[in-house]
């Protein structure tokens, strides 16, 4: 037996922990983690996620508009059109900070005086915020749940999960 064959034999003979979970037999730690992540994702996806997707999509500038100044985002969104119709209130001055697809790249706020424009431009940002929250929540809950199921040597020692559980 040469060194390469001995290495392969040592690897295959080493003890790898396996787990049974929800009808799945002999899962590796990685397979178990994947199953737990899928379960936590399914549990977390609810009305908030539908709201997030709708807000993100409704805030995209897909509707045509008349001419705009250079540097402006082309088009307008469904959220902007609807909120302008529902909340058509003008303030005396441009006091409401907004971001567009172009201005967010430079993190440059555009000030507006119309409440409807303000709401329409912040709608997709609310959707992205909900989505970011869901990603963090799913990640933390997955690690906590996984660590409860596995042996100590297979646990994920994450600082975030460690401080929560």
From TrEMBL:
InterPro entries, sorted: DUF8209, STM2901-like
Pfam families from the UniProt entry: DUF8209
Name of the protein this chain belongs to: Uncharacterized protein
Organism: Caballeronia novacaledonica
């Amino acid at each position: 037996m040469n060194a390469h064959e001995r290495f392969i034999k040592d690897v295959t003979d080493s003890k790898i922990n396996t787990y049974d979970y929800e009808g799945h037999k002999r899962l590796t730690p990685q397979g178990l983690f994947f199953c737990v992540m899928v379960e936590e994702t399914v549990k977390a996806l609810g009305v908030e996620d539908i709201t997030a997707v709708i807000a993100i999509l409704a805030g995209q500038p897909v509707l045509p508009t008349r001419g705009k100044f250079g540097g402006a985002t082309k088009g307008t969104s469904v959220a902007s059109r609807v909120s302008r119709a529902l909340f058509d209130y003008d303030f005396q001055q441009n006091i409401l900070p907004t971001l567009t697809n172009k201005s967010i790249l430079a993190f440059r706020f555009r000030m507006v005086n119309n409440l409807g424009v303000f709401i329409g431009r912040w709608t997709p940002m609310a959707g992205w915020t909900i989505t970011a929250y869901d990603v963090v929540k799913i990640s933390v809950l997955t690690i906590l749940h996984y660590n409860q199921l596995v042996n100590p040597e297979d646990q994920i020692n994450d600082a975030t999960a460690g401080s929560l559980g």
